[in-house]
Amino acid sequence: MTEQDSNDSRYDVVVVGGGAAGLSAALVLGRARHRTLVVDAGEPRNAPSAHMQGYLSRDGMPPAEFLALGREEIARYGVELVRDRVTDVARDFTVALERGGRVRARRLVVATGLKDEMPDVPGVAERFGRDVLHCPFCHGWEVRDEPFGVLASSAAGVHQALMVSRWSKDVTFFLHRVAEEELSDLDLRRLAAAGVDVVPGEVAALVVEDDRLTGVRMADGAVHSRSVVFVAPRPVPQTGLLERLGAEMDETPFGTYPVVDPNGLTSVPGVWAAGNAIGFSEQVVHAASGGYRAAAAIVGDLRMADLDAALGA
């Protein structure tokens, strides 16, 4: 990229992140005739998944195909996209890029998402997105009625076990490193009512045969036949840029995220956030909606700023 003093490096808006949220924001901004740059490191959260579900008219579409179509759409409106990573953002919205060079923006959209850290059990990370899953709304229909396992990361795993029992009547809840005493009486009664079997003891590994999950091996050597295992990854929000800009952050059980208004405006004037950068459960359809709302707010914000400047206000 060119240096910040060049007119070629000045943008109305720089969007950091080229997933559903970032591309949706860029589409709206491009259609509003704003010079927009998307900086995309090419590391979408849902890359391990073969398909995405629950997005009206795009149900079952591969995530890579969805993003490719989005990139084609924003290009039609003159939006620029570079494969790069933002390494720093100054208070004047000068954006430093990993491959060198700087660009300057009037407004920023941070759509950097999050990363999922898998439970430290052999086989889990390798099978994630295939037969190791985390969201029944995303994948439950496709694996319905198969023998499910749920690997507890904490006592909160009870909720996941109860939820996935909607999609299968054969669910086994592996406590792993969670003591049975950590479950409340209500937890146990609900699990029993849902027909969920509870297996205490540590899980040693997943059993894979012919590139197919076939079971869960316990530390004592016992193997439980399962063809699907649900896990709860630890979400790691990619919010370093927002923190460096001084955005107010909120610590939640699922990570630390920026405090935003309904349109994604952070506590830093001129900086919006969208998608998994603002919350763990922002699925593709939510992320796209959030990007749209942020962009629409930015269009209004820039319009009023330009008019006030013309009036000398």
Description:
The chain has about 325 residues and is of the alpha/beta class. It has two domains: about 5-115 and about 235-310, FAD/NAD(P)-binding domain; about 120-230, FAD/NAD(P)-binding domain (3-Layer(bba) Sandwich), CATH 3.50.50.60. It contains eight helices and 19 strands. It has helices at about 20-30, 65-75, 125, 135-140, 155-165, 185-195, 240-245, 285-310, and strands at about 10-15, 35-40, 80-85, 85-90, 95, 100-110, 115, 130-135, 150, 170-175, 195-200, 205-210, 215-220, 225, 230, 235, 250, 255-260, 270-275. The strands form five sheets. Strands 1, 2, 3, 4, 5, 6 and 19 form a seven-stranded mixed β-sheet that branches. The chain has a five-stranded parallel β-sheet with strand order 8-15-9-10-11. β9 (about 150), α5 and β10 (about 170-175) form a beta-alpha-beta unit. α1 runs parallel beside α8. The protein starts with 9 loop residues before the first strand and ends with a helix.
Distance between the termini: 34 Å
Q: How much helicity do the residues have? A: 25-40%
Name the shape in a single word. elongated
Helix/strand-derived category reads alpha/beta
One letter per element, helices H and strands E, the order comes to EHEHEEEEEHEHEHEHEEEEEEHEEEH
Fourth-tier CATH superfamily name of the largest domain: FAD/NAD(P)-binding domain
Q: What is the CATH architecture annotation of the largest domain?
A: 3-Layer(bba) Sandwich
